Amino acid sequence: MRRPMVAGNWKMHGTRTSVAELIDGLRRLDLPSDVDVAVFPSCLHINQVIDGLKDQPISIGAQNSAVESMQGALTGEVAPSQLVDAGCSLVLVGHSERRQIMGEQDGMLIRKFAAAQACGLIPVLCIGETLEQREAGKTLEVVGRQLDSIIEELGVGVFAKAVIAYEPVWAIGTGLTASPQQAQDVHAAIRAQLAEKNSEVAQGVRLLYGGSVKAANAVELFGMPDIDGGLIGGASLNADEFGAICRAAGN
Ligand code: PEP
């Protein structure tokens, strides 16, 4: 059985004061013991969050990391080894905002994924199609290609120590959510694609859904057989809402 995971992506939100309030809210939550819970604060607030949640069952991740695993001459970047040193255990790779706004492409994401794993971080690979691609009937082709770029270069075995988040770009921050069936169809296709190479890896890997998940739609989404939890943006900035989403992923 796959253990569900709910992860909050705080994006470029927060000040020291608002992050302290969010930490307080998270500390007060009654989190389910059968769900892995993680938060991804901005890099600037990682130390504050690690200190504030150190006795809590919440893992901390970064939203991005460098293409090189070890610290060195790479201005403006943060090395996976530095994230591990700070106490992070996860890192997002290929969030659609970075693909679209920062121009990150498959070649760079392969390097980031490999560099993160080389340091023991768990990469959360984000994949998903735009509205235009969905309307053109290309969803599975696009998502399949994004996944294949990692498999071809690094091998399917890397997903034994990684998480995949399916995030349709048209559903991120828009209030539009993929229906549970739409999301399940893509998740099933992702798992089938992995199973063609290695069925054990395919059965074990956690596939999160992301895109306007809220407490009100989480139960239905997480009830689908291939949806193992969620990557939550906006709703993760409210501790009570996030807690309710975490509970929706539990039994
Ligand atoms: C995200 O940014 O990963 C995300 C899913 O955002 P939201 O929940 O706000 O749509």
Automatic annotation (TrEMBL):
One of its GO terms (biological process) is glycolytic process. Its main location: cytoplasm. It catalyses: D-glyceraldehyde 3-phosphate = dihydroxyacetone phosphate. One of its GO terms (cellular component) is cytosol. The keyword Isomerase applies. Pfam families: TIM. It is found in: Cytoplasm. Substrate binds at N9, W10, K11, G173, S212, G233, G234. InterPro entries: Aldolase_TIM (IPR013785), TIM_sf (IPR035990), TrioseP_Isoase_bac/euk (IPR022896), Triosephosphate_isomerase (IPR000652), Triosephosphate_isomerase_AS (IPR020861). One of its GO terms (molecular function) is triose-phosphate isomerase activity. Its EC number is 5.3.1.1. Pathway: Carbohydrate biosynthesis; gluconeogenesis; Carbohydrate metabolism; erythritol degradation; Carbohydrate degradation; glycolysis; D-glyceraldehyde 3-phosphate from glycerone phosphate: step 1/1. NCBIfam families: tim. Belongs to the triosephosphate isomerase family. Homodimer. This is Triosephosphate isomerase. The lineage of its organism: Bacteria, Pseudomonadati, Pseudomonadota, Gammaproteobacteria, Pseudomonadales.
